[in-house]
Amino acid sequence: MRQIHVMLRVVDLDKMIKFYTGALGMQLLRKVDFPEGRFTLAFVGYGDEKNHAVIEFTCNWDTGSYTKGDAFGHIAILCDDLQATCERVRCSEGKLISEPHKMKGGPVMAFARDPEGYELELLGPDVFELLEKGFDK
Length: 137
Hints:
The chain is an alpha/beta fold and 137 residues long. It has helices at residues 13-22, 82-90, 127-133; strands spanning 5-9, 27-34, 39-45, 54-60, 75-78, 95-102, 108-113, 119-123. It folds into 2 domains: 1-62, 2,3-Dihydroxybiphenyl 1,2-Dioxygenase, domain 1; 73-137, 2,3-Dihydroxybiphenyl 1,2-Dioxygenase, domain 1 (Roll), CATH 3.10.180.
């Protein structure tokens, strides 16, 4: 078994696709309308679900807003070039909420929000090395 996707409900599907494909470099894998159910699904990621976990956006046509719960934390994104990713977020409809910084005993990271307010943890490429060693070592 393995994870294949996480679903987020969104209002402005085109804006979300533009942000995730532009600022974060994901690909739009597919977009399907379901007129009978009055919703559209779009899947974005760095590869298809056969080999990667992806994000599913669900846009319900008759819903103008959603209440975001306080239990959801963030989506973690590994960045080959954290500074460049942060600059793309700054130039997009997303919002950088913390500059790249080194977590004490941990990786270099930054935090951002996508156009609909979902939080993203942007991680530098050192995260896997630190996971192998243990963050506090």
